[in-house]
Specification:
The chain is an alpha+beta fold. The protein contains 9 helices and 16 strands. The two termini are about 35 Å apart. This is N-acetyltransferase domain-containing protein.
């Protein structure tokens, strides 16, 4: 029998990744969607986008490896985010999952290997290979605003019809552009790279953002709509931006709008813009029909900003979704936000927004 091996993922492996994700119940994504996730990231560079565990007869495991680039002063740092650990559970004795995670943790040429959105099944595995629980309660926490209380109450009742409940309509969209209180809200097309760089704070590790990398995040070929960036401007200057997307955790659960990215200037004007931006996100989510609005890593926003969108709930995971192996002490002061995680591609797409394509039979979940 030929021994199993781990190798870098290739585009030829995409059908096997779809198969494994289907077996493990991961959110729906086609081969083209996985191609976008793994091979389209403009910040990936020469770092492997993931690895497969190859058994004697088939691919039996996969681990994704998404790279974000950070700067602190003149220095640049590479952070690899592990995602989508999937294995064929019918194949016994290979320990594909733990081997893949160990391989990801040990990879060279990155300053840190992190997970910011791992599930309860993978959480116990990561400390076994040297990735420690990270961020404490801040990593477990999210906040949410209830936008449609009647729908929340109905969700507590047994389903009377099909399993898919509370789905959005096919014409769903977020109406982003507006002007309120001297602050203009615009789309991503309104900003340039210099403005984006000026938004990010100095003296701490921050994710490098530019128009190309943010456009990439909006270019999901599996999503027809329901994902937008919003830029808050005051006095002609961009001071904050966020992305918002509609997701639906499972057929029987509520849809919700997720704030999947948040970057802002820490100046006084930036804090004012953040309050206005959060209020605006709640307004456009409510008008679009979303049941809830959620923000993970709420400690990323200054004190007082969360209240701007009204009363909210603080929720916590029962497991540690954040683990890290950090090799560069500079990153010890890094405070991740929602845009540092894999939310923009990891969340389930509501069926009404799943793009119709010839490869529909490749959908998973």
């Amino acid at each position: 029998m030929t021994a199993s091996a781990i190798r870098e993922v290739t585009q030829a492996d995409l059908p096997d990744i779809v198969r494994l994700a289907t077996l493990c119940g991961f959110p729906a994504r086609t081969t083209e969607g996985w191609r976008w996730v793994l091979f389209g990231n403009p910040q990936q560079g020469a770092i492997a986008p993931g690895w497969v565990h190859e058994g004697p007869d088939s691919i039996t495991g996969f681990l994704g490896n998404f790279v974000n680039r950070y700067r602190c002063g003149p220095a640049q740092h590479l952070v690899a985010t592990g995602h989508t650990v999937v294995t064929d559970r019918s194949v016994k004795g290979q320990q594909a999952g733990i081997r893949l995670i160990r391989h990801g943790v040990a990879q060279p040429h990155v300053d840190a290997f992190v997970t910011l959105n791992n599930n309860a099944l993978s959480a116990p595995l990561l400390p076994r290979v040297g990735a420690r629980p990270w961020l404490g309660h801040q990593g477990r926490e999210w906040v949410e605003w209830i936008l449609r209380p009647s729908r929340v109450l109905r969700a507590l009742l047994p389903a009377a019809g099909p399993a898919e409940r509370f789905d959005c309509h096919p014409g769903f969209s977020f109406a982003v552009e507006a002007r309120r209180g001297g602050i203009t809200f615009a789309t991503l097309e309104s900003v340039c790279d210099d403005e984006l760089e000026a938004i990010t704070p100095e003296g701490v590790p921050v994710r490098q953002i530019d128009v190309a990398s943010l456009r990439y995040r909006l270019a999901d070929p599996d999503r027809r709509a329901g994902s937008s960036y919003v830029v808050a401007r005051m006095g002609g200057r961009a001071l904050a931006l966020a992305s918002i997307l509609l997701t639906k955790p499972s057929p029987e659960r509520l849809d919700h709008a997720e704030i999947a990215d948040w970057v802002a200037s820490p100046c006084a004007g930036g804090v004012k813009a953040q309050k206005a931006l959060l209020r605006h996100l709640a307004v456009i989510a409510r008008r679009a029909g979303a049941s809830r609005l959620r923000l993970h890593f709420p400690s990323i926003v200054p004190a007082g900003v969360l209240q701007a969108a009204g009363p909210h709930l603080r929720r916590r995971h029962r497991h540690d979704p954040c683990h890290a192996l950090v090799r560069n002490d500079v990153l010890a002061s890094w405070q991740p936000g929602p845009g540092d995680a894999d939310y923009f591609f990891a969340f389930r797409i509501p069926p009404a927004l799943f793009a119709a394509r010839s490869g529909a039979h490749d959908r998973v979940g």
